[in-house]
Each structure stands twice: as C-alpha cells, then as structure tokens.
Amino acid sequence: MSPLSEEAKAKITQSVADGFDEQIAYTQELIRIGGQRGHETDVMDWVFKQYNNRGWNPIRIEMDEGELSQHIGAGRFSETHSRVPIIIGTHKPKGEAKGKSLILNGHLDVVPLGPADMWKADPYSGLIEGDRLYGRGAGDMRSGAAANVWALDALRRIGLQPASEIILQAVVEEESTGNGTLMAHLKGYKADAALIPEPMQEQLVRANVGVLWFQVEVRGRPVHVREMSTGTNAIDASMKVIGALREMEEEWDQRYSSQQYFQDEKHPLNLNVAIVKAGDWASSVPAWCQVDCRIAIVPGVSAQSAADEIEKKVADFAANDPYLSQNPPKIRWNGFFSEGYVLEPGSEAENVLRRAHQQAAGEELTTQTSTAYIDARVHSLYDKIPAMVYGPIAGDIHGFDEWVSIESVKRVTTAMALFIAEWCGVEEM
Amino acid sequence: MSPLSEEAKAKITQSVADGFDEQIAYTQELIRIGGQRGHETDVMDWVFKQYNNRGWNPIRIEMDEGELSQHIGAGRFSETHSRVPIIIGTHKPKGEAKGKSLILNGHLDVVPLGPADMWKADPYSGLIEGDRLYGRGAGDMRSGAAANVWALDALRRIGLQPASEIILQAVVEEESTGNGTLMAHLKGYKADAALIPEPMQEQLVRANVGVLWFQVEVRGRPVHVREMSTGTNAIDASMKVIGALREMEEEWDQRYSSQQYFQDEKHPLNLNVAIVKAGDWASSVPAWCQVDCRIAIVPGVSAQSAADEIEKKVADFAANDPYLSQNPPKIRWNGFFSEGYVLEPGSEAENVLRRAHQQAAGEELTTQTSTAYIDARVHSLYDKIPAMVYGPIAGDIHGFDEWVSIESVKRVTTAMALFIAEWCGVEEM
C-alpha cells in the first residue's frame, strides 16, 4: 500500500463533488422513507435494491435470537426488538486482492421523533436550509449509510473499483441492542478494518463506552388517595431507587476518573433516566412505575459485572427501605448489554485515514472519546480489527430538528473515497 | 313525619333480608358488565331497563359541555371525558306528597384496573368469598347503586311505596369530574334531601374536601445522552416542580390544620402524584414529561383560588430555575375543579338517618371527614339541601381486589329502606 498520487487524489475528490447532488438526493430519500424500530422493512428493501443495482450481491440475514443470546455482547431481546433482517453486500475485486479488505458499516434504524409539534418541519421531509439537511436520522446515521455507498460510487464514476473485498453492512438495532452488527459478526463476516461513518464531527473515535439498558419496576399495593398513608406511591418509591443509582453513577465516574481516554470527560458514564410510565388514574395512589434507564461503562468493564453491581445496588437499597423491602424492585435488562472498546493508536488503517482526512478537510484528524454506544465495539472486541468511527458534523442527534452539515458530508465522503482507494487499492472496472 | 312503628320496622327489615340474595346477584351483574370511563353505555342501558321495569320512567340526559362549562363547579373536560348520558328515574306518589322528597344518587363509573395480574381473580367476576364480594366497583359504588334500587324494592315487596317523590340519579364521571351529578342539577332536579350510598364504612360524611385534577407538563430541548449536560432531563425538571407543589401541600395542611372537621386528619389535602408519562427512548435525554396530579382543598376554599395558587407556585418556582425559566411548565386542568362542603349537623334528614342506622346496625351512627371527592357537594353547594353520604364497609377502593362487605350492604340497605319509609312516608301500592 502506498500513498495515492496527487492526480488520483484530485480525480477522486472531483468525482465525489460531481456526484454530490445525487448523493444528497439519495440521503433525503433515505430520510423520507423513515422506519421506526421494528418497521425498517421499507428502508431496508430500498437499500437492498441499491446494493443490487451496484452488483454487490446483497443478502438478507435474519435476527437469530437463539444464536444471539449465546453471545456475551448481545443486547437483550424485548418485545420491541426489530425482526427486520440486516443486509450484507459484497464487492469482490476482479482477481486476487491487491490491498486490504474493509467493512463499511452503517445503521438504518432511527430513534423516535418525540412530540411532532416540536419539530420545525416534518421530521421525514428531508428539508434543506443553507448547509443543513434536517430530519430524523439525518445525522444518525442515514447520511453516513449513504456515504458508504457514494464513496464507492465516486470511484466507479472514474472507472475504478476497490482492488480488495469490501463488505457493506446495512444494519438495524444499533440504537437499542447492537444486535444487527453482532449478527453479521456471528455469520463470519470479517475484514482487515472496519469504518463506520457515524456523525462524529469529523473526528475519529479513540475510545468508546459500553452501554446497558434496563428497566426498574416497582409494584405495590394501590389504594384510594384518601388512604394514601397506608399505601405507598410507586412513583416516589421508584425515584428513591433512581436516587440510589445516581449515587452509583457518581461513584463510577469517580472510580474511573483516571481511566485512559476518559480523564477529560466530566460525566462519561451518564445514567439517563429516560422513560417513565406510571399509574393510570389521578385519584388512585399509583401502584406501579416503570423507569427505563441507560448507563455507560468504560472499556475493560464487562457488561455482566456492571449489571451485577447495578442489581446489588438496587437490592441493597431496597433492603433498607421499609416499603421496598416488602415490594422489591425488579430490574429487567431490555437492550444494550455491551462492553466499550479502545481503538489502539498507530494502526496502518488509522494512518491511511489520517492522510485521507488531511487531504479532504485540509487539517489534521483529531480524536474523541465517545460516551455513546457505537457498533464498532463488535468489530473491535469480537472481529479484533481496527474499527474506525469517523463521520460528519451533525446536531440535535436524538432530538428535534436533527440535522447534518451538507458540506461536512462532502468532506467525509471524499475522505472515505480516498481512504478506500489507498487501503484497498483500486483497479480499473 | 313520625318515627316508624316497631311493626313497620320489623316488616321492612325482613323484606330487605327476603330480597337480599337477589340484590347481591343484581350487584354482581353490575360488576360483571364493567365499563371503564367513557364506555359505560352497557351498564347504563342495563340500569335504564331496571328503572323502566320498576315504573320510574327513566330518561337519559346528555352531557352538555357548553352548559357545564358555564358552571363554577364543573370538572374540566378532556378527551377522556365520558359522553355517556346520565339516567334520571322518578317515583311519584299516588296523590299529593305525604312526606319529604329525596334524591337517591349513585355513580356507575369505575376507575381503571391496573395490571390485571395483580388481582387474585378477574376484576369483573363478582367473586364472593365469605363476607366479601370482590370486583372493580364492588365498593365504589355499584353495591351502593344497587342498594338505591333494592331499598325501594324492599318496600314494594311488602306492598308499600314512598309517599313522596324520589329522584333516582344514576350518573357517570363521579371519579373524574363530578359532571354527571352536576348535569342533573343543571336540569333542575331537586328534592328535600339527598342520599348517596358511597362506601363510607357505615358512617355519615360530615365534611368533605374539594378536589382538583391537573397535569404538569415540562418540555425542553432533547439531546443525545452523550450531550446530556447541554440538555435538561424533563423528568428531573418535572420532579423539581412536584417538589415545589409538595411544599405547597405541606403549607396548606398547616394553614388549614385547625379547620373545623379536619383537625384530626393528618394529611387531609393529599397531593397525589398519580400518573407519569415521559420520554420514548432509553438513549435519549427525555425532552417531555407529563405528570398528572390530584390535590384536595378544605370546604370554603374555592377551586379557582386553589388553582390560582397552584399556578402561581409553579410559575414562581420555574422563574427561579435556570432551565424551567426558559421552558416554563404548563398546567392543564383536566378533571375535578370542585369545592368541598360540610353537612350541617342537626338536620331533620340526619336525625331520621340516625334512627334508621341505629335500628339496622344496632349502634349509633358516627360521622367522618372524607378526604376524597364525592358528588354530594353538588346537592350541598348548589341544590342547598342536606346531602348525606352513607354506605357500606368496603376495602381496597381503587386498588386490586376491591371488595365490599356483604353483611354491611344488607345493614345499609335496611337503614336506607327505613330512612325512606320515615322521611318520605309510605303508602299502599
């Protein structure tokens, strides 16, 4: 592998620019198709067709709950788990590989919208204003999933294709369990490196937390509000349990405050108290309360040990509470159950990406610590390959008026095309 | 009006006993028909038929939102407000009234079940075990609604009927707005006294709180959990608002601690934090949270002045909070908006009920202060008549395994029949 010639770099850069309007239209179409958790069939069918049109021989792989549940890093199934198959496309070089192989991974699942009236435009409209493309998934990460395709299209436009194998992974469940990408791993797909264009502000992720999802449920004896003192309010009781977990969160943040790559993060292990459902009648003391939480762990801590600690914390707290000791809270693991990872510096893949970014963006590639889940942990921990997460500038991820910077998508797509050309090598089509 | 003869008392008592198996079967049928808020058509149709069979010329009265919303004591409409008409039946004496007229009021609406698996039997089965009849509404108050009918049936069984007008009010919305009984008031139905057999442990309600329902909603800017510090968790923000309201609750309990009839109550004005709905994704910082609350006020305090104080408390608290001042909580009044009342002691109606209860139960009638809403406030405040709430022993009202004591229902029905005979007088059919 040798650095690209100035001429090659210029041609690739121009080719990305030449196709960019179409790339943005493709991204808008992805946003418009929508598809909430479990309802990604339409968007995945569309992606399948795109892969097929490009000769990547896509196949669908079903979510295999039995196989997944045997794996230490699998997210826990719940009734909301998507059953939509993931898609694997494969580009094969003409003959023997002349470069390194690569996984290009992107997730097509998106998070909910929240109250639609808090969006300034239809969240599925793909509205463009200035440099911003708006919509659910605009940043996280349909623009990245599109860039995976259009980086290769940029090579094709100038008559080139990668001279090594490219595995395109279009997955779901990245926002909730990570089981889509894990399913690809379980089927044996592997390469020399992986690249995931998540919206990382054009930075490379150096280290990433693991994430666990769980639900705390308190149930008790409900009574008429006039007898309030004889029953106990399950909402209050649940909030006390959450208080204990917040103590634990602080304790973890202290415990791991000198963890490599996490020293500069104020609260890397955020406990997010995210969803509450409780009670059904204003004049009844609520007898049940479900609180969905998400917490993070630093790399090197196993999900199981964290889960054990959470369960112990809740059990110990409940044992000392007069009401909760009689009505012990239940913990249900209902999503992510993942470990974090570190991208070891100095890999050849990273060096190639650094050159590509420098070329595309005109500045040095910097790194960040990610305090949110990313599927790269599958490639890093289980495929044991350099798993690079690098993608465009975006904002209001998971919020209202989510957007991605259009110019940033262009820079990132250019960097990706340059990276592929150098890492995999190119050959005439 | 003169006390009943010993012979009359004995005959009426025996007649209640003779019909009691049928009365319980009728009550079980009422429980089995079920009917949650807004879905009371079947049970009300059944009651209509029962009234009709007895010659009470029942009529249906629609909920008139326009008319109701003009009234100071109307509960606030929401999309869950029942549109099922109330039923008014009327018994007319043969000729001119020889005694006093009476309203017999009972509500057929019930509160939700909660998780069905926390009931020991189907909540609509009408299960009997020993002295207990179980089911949603068993106590509150289908057994009472049945007693209204069967107290009159007991007279009929021995060839008697009230010698004055009886207005039977079968209503809905007692559990949420009080608009059913208020609708009867607005249509001009009135009598010399009212009796409501709510499950009051065979006591008479001397004083009763007013009740207000409201929803606090906080909405903010949601962000990905990795940016948690830049957004604010709407659940946490809402709980802070609730904390401020709990301070106010304490303050009210202090302020009214020497209020007549409320001195012995520890927390008469309970703020019930009853329903929470917040967030939709475990890895998104929740951007909205709705908390439904119920609070009580002592008699003499208007609902409007209490509402004003609540709104001011929340606004003042929000003004001093960095986040809430930018995202002011909204308060939505979505149910009860009612004043409390006092049953002035010494009325002739009360004296007659005292004699009837003594006869039926073998002990003095005692009184209680009710810290839950009752429709009698309509008769007391707006009809300006003695409104007596007196009914059977029951338990787990609004809870799981709600029950009513069968023997207590018999005593109460006997007392009611004796009361009617003395208050209204009787005549041969």
UniProtKB/TrEMBL annotation, chains A, B:
This is Uncharacterized protein. The lineage of its organism: Eukaryota, Fungi, Dikarya, Ascomycota, Pezizomycotina.
